[in-house]
């Protein structure tokens, strides 16, 4: 720690915030950089679901026969902007390649390993603030059809990976969540997952702890990272910041530019998601729909409808119809929702890699640069556990499990 005690963390989303707090708590002098402010991208608008049950990669070959219908359906969870299609094609080809059975199984194990202790890692990081920001009531995955064989098969798939899950019938669903429609026949109850009632407030809690322990925040965009006399210099549009012993790169969907500057290729895509924030209250835990592919999460200010996948790049203006259509799904799933009005619409770019795994590693050719980005749909879920892995890399200590599956070397 005496040799490497001044650290720059670039990116103040939930992943960067957890890294900054973790390192500051361990005695390092940490400076956090972000031009947008604290938790202002996906960390502000995500579904608030600590989705530790999501151990299966998105690159699943069962998706292929569904794609044509999904791309033509207005209410579909998937959209590819035709103007962006050629740019997205290399990523999509890699995505399909990762559907191979051997890769799918390997990536499942890597996701399961990260998720297994993810919520406990938040408890360790937040301390006595944990219960204020994390609610552990489980979550539901609903089915509007009655194909018990298919539901049982899915349950067993989760159970085989160590995910605790029960099947609920219609009566049990109504007891648990009375405002769900009776058109929902069955549900899977994931008993060991949680949610936060305000993702932005969680980010601000982490930030406040970081500042209270001596951390510094610079609201500027880092434009260059250069090595100088065995230390690192960060340039922003306003000034230069010198003498960092280590740099942690946590810039989410914007990571490609700085990685390229350092000489690393990373096939990261801005997989855009939307939310519709309603003032109505309805549920006590996250409820996802297997049929409609979206999620409803109770928030302190109402009900957040979230989901959809859109490939349109980082610069294309939002298509807020994607958020508006989520209300149509909610009205079909909830009682007494016919007169509920549209809420506040939001869009944010998830940092997605084609194998559904994040990059968490030391840069192969830059021993004092550490990567922690690309957590796709699981940035909120995996932020705290990722910060423990990064802290081990900084201290050159072994991790609790093998982190080689998350190395950027897989793309070089």
TrEMBL record:
GO function terms (MF aspect): oxidoreductase activity
A Pfam family assignment: DAO
Annotated protein name in UniProt: FAD dependent oxidoreductase domain-containing protein
Cellular component annotations (GO), alphabetically ordered: cytoplasm
InterPro entries: FAD-dep_OxRdtase, FAD/NAD-bd_sf
Keywords: Oxidoreductase
Location of the FAD dependent oxidoreductase domain: 6-393
Gene3D superfamilies assigned: D-Amino Acid Oxidase, subunit A, domain 2, FAD/NAD(P)-binding domain
Organism superkingdom: Bacteria
